[in-house]
Amino acid sequence: MMINKINLLNIPESNQTIILNDYLEKINEQTVILQERRDKIFLEKTEKSQINMDTKLANVMKDLANIIISKSKINSKKSSLNYNINDKRKYRIIETYQRITDQGIYLKCWDELFKKNDYLEKSWNLDLIKILLKEQDLLKVKDLEQHIKQYEIINKFYKQLELLSKIYFEGSNFISSNKVKKFVFELLEHLTETFICYNIEMLLRNLLMKYFVDTSVSSYLENTADQFTDINDKINYLLDSKNVIRDKSLKEILYEDLPQEFVRNSVDLFENYEDKQLFESKSIKEILNDLFNLLTVGEVISIPSNSQFMQILNRDLTDYFDLFIQKLINNWLVVIQNTFKFSINQYRINTCILELVKP
User: Which of 247, 275, 274, 249 lies closest to 260, judged by CA?
Assistant: First the structure.
């Protein structure tokens, strides 16, 4: 959501920082456990060698945690947090939201928006809810005739929504000749990119982090800050470098290609009749397996195709996302359609009310 004082929300700089912060929390939790063990042993005055070992280990972990968070703040890419709400007129609706290029930041902003009523009241993202609340207040007054001009303004808003809604339901069945259906398709793509593809990336990053930690020479607790940074660099290489199969990086495919694939294989929205006839459906599992298998073809760093890690990705992770991706996209479409239906009905209801209260 676009608000003037976005910098006051204390949003992390990037997805990378969010991931590092998650690991930092785990390290801090482990530090507390070790400190408790150390204190207990110290009080009992037994196993003095163990005391020294645990104390040293706890101190190393605290130092590591401080280094990790410092490096993440320095190295993480800077996202476009200086967005000005006045710029919204320069862009189409979805393009406006796409200007925040980091999905993690996007979701964090929405989360913070709903926590702060003063921001929520100033936001232009929830106009329909605001209109409904205003309408509700007007209907509570005893003499609606005195507020009829306000009610007429509200009804003009619904009239515009009704016209757009009718285009969706009564216009062409295909995107190329129905501007509202085209918007709906792009909106579904945007939602898929933001909520589904982002979470695929975050899960993949976490699993890769665990894979490289487990396969490194040192144990997890003995990893130095440099080793941790090296692992993060390997993950970025796997996600950001172009591969030999497709002239795109895995991350580009995830955010540029997969949203459309997921939507096209979930709902009945097509460019034109020819597109509908030639379309070959794919399962969510097939789409994800094709994506994950790109990890095995890196020129410098790659994951063995027969490794347990790849088995987990192509079996457990794909099964997990297969449970809900199509259902979620379908539910989004149902919500959009119901909003259109509501707009049509509400305009008709308000028109009747205005006719009844007019002198």
Answer: 275
Closest alpha carbon to 342 in 158, 170, 181:
158
List C-alpha distances in Å: 143 to 137, 147, 330, 335.
Answer: 12, 8, 43, 34
- Give φ, ψ of 78 to 5 degrees: -90, 125
Query: pLDDT (tens digit, 9 = 90+) per residue, 147-198?
Result: 788 888 888 889 999 999 999 999 999 999 999 999 999 999 999 999 999 9
Give the model confidence (pLDDT) of 85-143 as tens digits.
Answer: 344 445 577 776 776 666 777 777 777 777 766 666 666 667 787 788 788 888 777 77
- Among 55-64, 194-203, 329-338, the range scoring the smallest mean pLDDT is 55-64
Question: How far apart (Å, rounded) are the C-alpha atoms in residues 31 and 24?
Answer: 10
Average pLDDT over residues 23-36: 62
pLDDT at 297: 86
CA end-to-end span of the chain, whole Å?
42
Instruction: pLDDT band for 80, please (50, 70, 90 cuts).
Output: very low
77 backbone dihedrals φ, ψ, rounded to 5°: -70, 150
Residue closest to 196 by CA, chosen among 292, 15, 329 = 329
What tokens does 85 get?
A: 């709400």
Q: Of 92, 106, 180, 123, which Cα lies nearest the Cα of 3?
A: 123
Kindly list the domain boundaries of the chain, sorted by start residue: 6-114, 126-170+337-357, 175-323
| Dist CA 179 CA 92 (whole Å) | 13
